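ARCHIVE CARD
Drawer: 12
Card no.: 0347
Subject: one protein chain, sequence and derived structure
Cross-reference: see card 0346
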Amino acid sequence: TVQSGESFRSVRQKLEHDGLITSGWRFEVLARTQGVANQIRSGEYLISKDCGPLQVLEILVNGKSIEYALTVQEGLSRFEIAQMFANLGLGTTEEFLRATEDSALINELLGESIPSLEGYLFPETYKLTKFTGAKNLVRTMVQKFLKTYSEAVKGNALSMPRHRLVILASLIEKETGVEADR
């Protein structure tokens, strides 16, 4: 794991300690001669002990972190999603729930003053890294909702405000399990 702002020296020491490189000093010389010592990206990486020093550098410069899939199914509450997020080990349920109740974030995303983002967390499979964070995940979910919502209502004259429509859709989702009934 390379933390944001972590020095190259610290990274090379971890690599050497973990047995991923044999000489931290030679690795640093290689990185400097390649001109990439200042291009190491933060992230969580899977590096095989069979990788050579150039491959290790390429992985760290490329910045392709390990991704975790979070599949949010239709009808899940924000509490259930928070538990799934915590089960991945990427944060806590409390962090996720706080993000869904953050009035500044709600106002930024929706331009409304509502108690939570319940109903606005779009069901889909999201690719997360160790550094995504609850707030960024919630932001992505709501942005996906807004995009899908605007496409769905385009050209339809709805007499109901968006938030009331979301509440109605959530009630219908919870009250029936049969797709035809919905």
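Annotation on reverse: The mean pLDDT is 90. The radius of gyration is 22 Å.
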